[in-house]
Amino acid sequence: MNDRLRDRFRSDSDIEALPPQSLIRIVNIPDSAPASPWWLISRRMLYAMLLVLATAMAAYFDRGGYTGLETFLDAVYYAAVSLSTTGYGDIAPVTQSARLINILVITPMRVIFLILLVGTTLSVLTEESRKTLQIRRWRRHMRNHTVVIGYGTKGRAATTALLADGVPASQIVVVDSDSEALTHASSRGLVTVHGHATRSDVLKLAGAARARAVVVAPNQDDTAVLITLSVREIAPSATIVASVRESENSHLLRQSGADSVVVSSETAGRMLGLATVSPSVTGMMEDLLSPDEGFSVAERVVGEDEVGGNPRNLEDIVLGVVRSGVLYRVNSSEAETVEPGDRLLYIRRITGAPGTD
Fold first, then answer.
1. 121 confidence band (pLDDT: 50, 70, 90)
2. What's the domain range around 257?
3. Mind giving me the DSSP string for 250-311?
4. Is the full-model pTM beyond 0.85?
5. What is the CATH number of the domain that holds 337?
6. Residue 216 reports pLDDT greater than 90
């Protein structure tokens, strides 16, 4: 069955093997802060003036090889008319050394000068070259990041929780085939990859093989199973958290390699049932699941002064103890005493929220 699913979605092309310049329309790395157009123009003019000054100094130091060049102002004048290709001819190199300097130094500067002062077309090419270098550098250095597959309602909520928990936006990569969804993700400072995550080459392009965690949140359960299979194949050590609509499909995701499975339909159903019986309980649950207000569920390392104590007697409201990757509820016998290296699952108070200290 797994092979049939892979064959159904696998493609012969390999996006991951494409050169960086071919990935500009696929990978988008948001800039930290867009520069002002006036700053960009001023910077180009500064570079142009530095080229004029460098050319003038080169000509002035060899002024004996030029006709009509006596003062430094003459050298600046010669540099300006030469780099701008005006070329009046009143100052010209006459010696072999001066002509060699013109060929090897001043002519390349003239080309660079024209590139700096050119219009929109070369500006776009320069921007694409910058993005190409940026993508190459990102692919080389991206490590221990989080990949979010699917930027629908669940994917957006997952990224919101990650950002609220202190994960930098540059460490989150969103994979989706919807351009509008990726535009929204990019506006939040997230790195985006355009493509279908059912393809292993798209997953490799997103750096799933080097990711710390992968969130699988597509709209269909069979797609979630296939993506989980592909992710586990290329990232054996990554933590995979997957979402599934129907509970009867959760075992397929676990068999495919998911470390944790969230059943969205049952979770929503329980919340609806609680709302009819005890609306206040639903409000508290929503508060715990909202990372930016009231309270939230968090995890932390046990303190040295807490080792050996009972988690029920700690200052924080502890829900469970995580030991060697296994969660023990606070009322279990394994969690009666806190041991070194344990992590506590507790209720954290969001400072500054209404109703909190």
1. low
2. 2-18+143-266
3. HHHHHHHT-SEEEEHHHHHHHHHHHHHH-HHHHHHHHHHH-TTSSEEEEEEEPPGGGTTS-G
4. no
5. 3.30.70.1450
6. yes
